Task: inverse folding
């Protein structure tokens, strides 16, 4: 996984909700730091500083600068998908000639056409409200990985796809 912000779980070892979040993070193999606020005063103070009321509101999860107080599983995954695009699964829709990432019901895509035995990567698109979060770059890199796994030779036609390719020395020589 690439570009993972720091994930912290503030809680207590005996708290069933804290254990629930630990199980989720372990299952999806998301690196995180567990900070027991009942055993460690420094961790407790760090958690208090996140809230105006200075209470030990746990469990609390931080993903980078985003703070989640006892989120539902749905809300937790919504924010994981929005803040950590490398956790998203790339899908290849061969009928529509595109690779896609589903971000909470919105689709980011790379479209292609075949010409003379090569895959031409013609267009990339990220929904407007999701731009600027690294999703486009992650989409293109995941597409490069998948198409090479599938044995395709590809040519970057789209200007954004060319930019991602040219900024990465590994892909510079593989994708034309």
Result:
């Amino acid at each position: 996984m690439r570009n993972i912000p720091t994930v912290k779980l503030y809680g207590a070892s005996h708290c069933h909700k804290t254990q629930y979040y630990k199980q989720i993070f372990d299952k999806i193999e998301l690196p995180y730091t567990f900070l027991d606020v009942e055993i460690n005063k420094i961790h407790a103070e760090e958690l208090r500083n996140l809230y105006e009321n200075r209470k030990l509101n746990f469990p609390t999860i931080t993903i980078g600068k985003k703070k989640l107080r006892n989120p539902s599983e749905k809300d937790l995954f919504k924010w994981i998908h929005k803040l950590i695009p490398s956790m998203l699964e790339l899908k290849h829709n061969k009928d529509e000639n595109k690779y896609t990432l589903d971000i909470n019901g919105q689709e980011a895509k790379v479209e292609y056409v075949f010409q003379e035995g090569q895959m031409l990567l013609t267009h990339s698109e990220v929904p407007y409200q999701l731009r600027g979060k690294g999703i486009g770059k992650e989409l293109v890199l995941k597409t490069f990985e998948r198409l090479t796994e599938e044995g395709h030779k590809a040519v970057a036609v789209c200007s954004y796809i060319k930019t991602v390719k040219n900024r990465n020395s590994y892909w510079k020589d593989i994708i034309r």
